[in-house]
């Protein structure tokens, strides 16, 4: 599915793939790569080619967000240093590649981006907000002018990211939510599921107040939840 959200295009390939966002010549998260012919078809509809992108920014190191990186020929890869380590070493445990039955090859990360740095993407100026918890290398991308947050798997429309996978940390996620709650956010564009157009700050504050509870891996409430 392709959905136009003003200056941003959302591509959803399958339940297994992350949301893929296209802003001009920038891609935010590349999906698993397992449905790439479909991706190619969708880009063709948009009048774009796989080699027409300048950069891919990964919100974190899980396979469903990084698996397609290599298909964007010529694009530079940007990720937090903690995520970059997983991507550059094709770390199977931390990327959860086996869970997706995928194949991860080591890939160079050209820009190791940290808290406060900015990346230009189309008309947006994306500030890196370091938000560990779902994974050690999780970042959100914040455009102050349009009050837009690309939240990766830190915050979804209906809840927060899981912390039961390797490197997950409920206390760190709680601290990250409290940090996000201080920003003025309207639009939330998450790593899975539906997007939010208005009142993002309120939703994040609610999640922060509710508190992140530690979960263990055989908790049945996690069944079917995205990683
Ligand atoms: Zn994830
Ligand atoms: Zn995910």
Helix content: 10-25%
Distance between the termini: 20 Å
What is the H-and-E element order?
A: EEEEHEHEHHEEEEEEEHEH
Give the name of the CATH superfamily. Answer: Ribonuclease Z/Hydroxyacylglutathione hydrolase-like
Total helix count?
6
How big is the Rg?
Answer: 16 Å
Q: Based on helices, strands and strand pairing, what is the structural class?
A: alpha/beta
Bound molecules: zinc ion
The 3D shape can be described as globular
Architecture (CATH level 2) name:
4-Layer Sandwich
Low-confidence stretches: none
Described by strand count, sense and barrel closure, the largest sheet is: 7 strands, mixed
Overall tally of domains: 1
Q: Percent of residues in beta strands? A: 15-25%
Q: Averaging pLDDT over every residue, what do you get?
A: 96
Written account of the structure:
Helix content is 22%, strand content 23%. The protein is built from 6 helices and 14 strands. The chain has helices at 36-45, 63-66, 81-89, 92-95, 170-180, 200-210; strands spanning 2-5, 8-11, 20-23, 26-28, 55-57, 76-79, 111-112, 118-121, 124-130, 139-143, 148-152, 155-156, 159-160, 187-190. Strand 4, helix 1 (36-45) and strand 5 (55-57) form a beta-alpha-beta unit. It is globular, with a radius of gyration of 16 Å. The two termini are 20 Å apart. Bound molecules: zinc ion (2 copies). One zinc ion binds next to helix 2.
């Amino acid at each position: 599915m392709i959905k136009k959200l003003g200056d941003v295009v959302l591509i959803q390939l399958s339940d297994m793939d992350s949301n893929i966002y296209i802003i001009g010549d920038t891609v935010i998260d590349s999906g698993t790569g397992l449905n790439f012919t479909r991706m190619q078809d969708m880009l063709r509809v948009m009048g774009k080619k796989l080699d027409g992108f300048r950069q891919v920014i990964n919100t974190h190191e899980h396979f469903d967000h990084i698996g397609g990186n290599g298909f964007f020929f010529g694009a530079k890869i940007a990720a937090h240093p903690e995520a970059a380590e997983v991507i550059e070493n094709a770390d199977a445990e931390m990327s959860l590649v086996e869970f997706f039955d995928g194949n991860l090859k080591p890939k160079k990360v050209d820009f190791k981006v940290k808290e406060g740095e900015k990346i230009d993407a189309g008309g947006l100026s994306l500030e890196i907000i370091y938000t560990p918890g779902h994974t050690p290398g999780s970042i959100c991308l914040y455009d102050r002018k349009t009050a837009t947050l690309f939240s990766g798997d830190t915050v979804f429309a209906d809840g927060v990211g899981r912390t039961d996978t390797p490197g997950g940390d409920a206390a760190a996620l709680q601290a990250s939510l409290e940090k996000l709650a201080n920003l003025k956010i309207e639009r939330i564009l998450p790593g899975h599921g539906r997007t939010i157009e208005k009142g993002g700050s309120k939703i994040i504050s609610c999640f922060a107040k509710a508190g992140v509870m530690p979960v263990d891996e055989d908790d049945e409430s996690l069944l079917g939840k995205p990683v």
